[in-house]
Structures are given as structure tokens and as C-alpha cells.
Amino acid sequence: MFPPALLAVLSERAVADYDLKVRRAALHATAEGWRDHPTTLPWLHDRAVHDRHRDVRRMAVEAIATHWPDDPATALLLSDRVDNDDDPTVRDAAADALP
Questions:
Q1: How many CA atoms lie within 13 A of 73 on its CB side?
Q2: pTM above 0.85?
Q3: What is the DSSP letter of 19?
Q4: How far apart are alpha carbons 37 and 51 in whole angstroms?
């Protein structure tokens, strides 16, 4: 089991670090290591919509589609990203994940 304080550190790095590689790694670790934590899915939704870089938004979309495919909010988020994300790679990832 990971120390609870690590989730806060990773979440903060995924949002605030200037290095894209750090943000991507922190997002991946959070999605994989805290799948069952009640704040992980809403946090990933926020990253999928609001991150400044397309790679992080795409990774968040893919993590949500992979780990929470049956959550009612997943299809809504994916549809929203298909229609509203500025980047075609994020739109394509969301479209590919829709049933």
C-alpha cells in the first residue's frame, strides 16, 4: 500500500509541474495506484478537460476509458471530449474509447 501523502504529491505534480514528462508520469501513477480512491476519477475528469497539454488530456481520457468504462460519467466525458477538445489526438482517443 502506498503512503496516503503520496497521492497528494502526485496529484499536485500532475497539475503544476512545468515538465510534461513529470505531469504524464504523475497522472499515470495516480490512475494506476489509486484507482479505488474516491477522488481519483473526478480528478482525472478535471485533467481530461482542463490540462494545458494535449498529451495529459489524452492520457486522462484513456485512463478513464480503461479503468472506469461502466461509470455513467465516462460516456458523457468521452462524448464531450469528442465534441469539444481543441486537439485532434484527444478527440480521436475519446472517439476510439466510445462503445
A1: 11
A2: yes
A3: -
A4: 21
